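Team,

Forwarding the record for the chain on the shared tracking sheet. I've put the sequence and predicted structure together so nobody has to dig through attachments.
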Amino acid sequence: MKQAKETITLPLPPRSASGSVLAPSVLGSVLALAPRRRLASCLCAVTGRGTGMSLLRSLRFFPVACTGRSARAVLLQPSQPWHTLHAGPSLSSSASSKELLMKLRRTTGYSFVNCKKALETCGGDLKQAEAWLHKQAQKEGWSKAAKLHGRKTKEGLIGLLQEENTAVLVEVNCETDFVSRNVKFQQLVQQVALGTMAHCQNLTDQLSTYSKGFLNSSELSELAAGPDGEGSLKDQLALAIGTLGENMSLKRAAWVKVPSGFYVGSYVHGEMQSPSLQNLVLGKYGALVICQTPEQITNLEEVGRRLGQHVVGMAPLSVGSLDDEPGGETETRMLPQPYLLDPSITLGQYVQPQGVTVVDFVRFECGEGVF
């Protein structure tokens, strides 16, 4: 007697206007309930012979074929994207590349696209990719600088940096006040101040009295950048122009070195702290006042600051003498001018009881002489 064939009755799947469509829930029922030897016939019963055989062939790569777990247990697990089933060397390589890309972006601040191109160009070498980015940025910066050359740079910042017996004032200009408030521009001012300070400290003169010097735009441009920058200051200028898209200029710098018995008072108007350097101060006006102090004075820093305020506010052209007759508002000599903070006395009358002698000063005003 012939054994009766086992049959499986399945609900018909929903159909669309263009033909039959296998509902995922129905396919799950088929695979979970049917023995493996009947998978082909079950799939054919639901989808048609061609489709069923095709799906069966694709199941050769499904985990059911290589585990002892039941089809129902496997198929009832939440589905995962196909790429998660192929973890191997390629995934590890991708994760490593992503980590390099993020590190390069954090280090340089350049865009995702540029950092990716740099890593591809340099074969994944992080240091080479960083150098490649800087080189490309400088090329772009010099190209922009050539196009923007001649546009007026009336805005910008004065930077004041003091270290021990040395102080420097620098002026860096841009086109708009908006850019002068940008951190990238302020970092450029910082680089210029650091470069000027390094230049001044490398001078080996034996000081018996104070020394003062100035650097013009071309001299300033040729100085080496500070410890956090590469190349010269003109290279840093090109990077800033390429990033911010405005014409900029390294206008000037002044430095002062004093021996024992002297003091450099300083003041910056519109003061703001540097983004990353504690003793760098930024503003629109700046002054250095060189004082001689035969003995230690307790409030010397405060006296130096007030003298700097006077120089910024009254804009003297020379020091003058304590013996000079008091002048009026048009007086250009510093000591006979009315004292800025108390116009009832002269600056000389303020200084004399303090125990200091004013011997020289430097005053910078941002945008001065630009028309």
